[in-house]
Write a structure and sequence with these properties.
single chain; mainly alpha; Fumarase C, Chain A, domain 2; Ribonucleotide Reductase Protein R1, domain 1; 2 domains; two-stranded parallel sheet; 12 helices; 4 strands
């Protein structure tokens, strides 16, 4: 089931790839239509020939400048891609917390963690990615601010675009390379994953038990209350939820001991995970 995290990330990046291809086709355009866009001293045929030589599209209509919604769209897409990078980085940062310790970004043998607490493996790479994603969102805001120009044209956008376009592209390029390094070197503690599941003492199966009781004719409110009580008790007292359910006269009247054991079993059911991966085309 842990692998579904990676499948989700892959699917999100596949959408970004499609968005990027579509966006670049639309936004990479130029104009040679005169000072106010009405071809006062040139003609559209010349503009088309020049843009063809440059290998870019021709703006369908323009003023003194190409409409800046196109530029904002591109910068917003970069921020959107950065959001997925940050999403992955934040998840790994959580998994690397000392009390979780399920997965860790690459960490050298001679590398130091926290300067004050030697037991900590600070997720410095993922924290860097998180911070840089904030920068991309800032660049996108600049693009949005540049859409509205005075009386169809001014050059207030120019000074900012000289900064945000190269910076945003270089930043995202670096982020993607750094993310690959993190994911390729991700250290996953399989045993800790299992311990995390088992420390709930079966409470993770509460949804399955809830549905089973409903199928037996229970009102949802009654079934929810019974399962919630058993699940909370299992976690706080570290007792088996299966045992607690069997001790409940009402629950045991609806479900046999065998049914309860089957429902609360902590062995993951991978059938649906496989179905998801097949739908994504990751497995046959």
């Amino acid at each position: 089931m842990f692998g579904l995290k990676f499948a989700l990330w892959e699917d999100e990046f596949a959408r970004h790839e499609s968005r990027l291809e579509e966006t670049l086709t639309r936004v990479i355009v130029g104009k040679l239509s005169g000072a106010v866009g009405n071809y006062g001293h040139t003609d559209p045929d010349l503009e088309s020939r020049v843009m063809a030589q440059l290998g870019i599209g021709t703006a369908r209509i323009s003023t003194q400048v190409v409409s800046r919604d196109l530029h904002a769209e591109f910068l917003t897409l970069l921020a959107l891609i950065g959001g997925t990078v940050e999403k992955i980085a934040v998840e790994i940062r959580h998994l690397q917390r000392t009390e979780v310790s399920e997965a860790f970004e690459p960490f050298g043998k001679k590398q130091k963690g926290s300067s004050a607490m030697p037991h900590k493996r600070n997720p410095i790479l993922c924290e860097r990615l998180t911070g840089m994603a904030r920068m991309l969102r800032g660049y996108a805001i600049v693009g949005l601010e540049n859409i509205a120009l005075w009386h169809e044209r001014d050059i207030s956008h120019s000074s900012t675009e000289r900064v945000v376009f190269p910076d945003a592209c270089i930043a995202l390029d670096y982020m993607l390379h750094l993310l690959l390094r993190v994911v390729d070197g991700l250290d996953v503690d399989i045993d800790q994953l299992a311990r995390t599941i088992h420390q709930t003492h079966g409470a993770l199966a509460s949804e399955k038990v809830l549905h089973a009781l409903i199928e037996k004719g229970w009102l949802r409110e009654d079934a929810y209350a019974a399962v919630q009580m058993a699940a909370r008790t299992a976690i706080t007292t570290r007792q088996s939820m299966a045992g607690l359910l069997k001790e409940s006269r009402d629950v045991s009247a609806a479900l046999t001991a065998t049914e309860i054991d089957r429902l609360v079993a902590l062995d993951p059911d991978y059938d649906m995970a496989d179905a998801i991966l097949r739908r994504l085309g990751i497995v046959d």
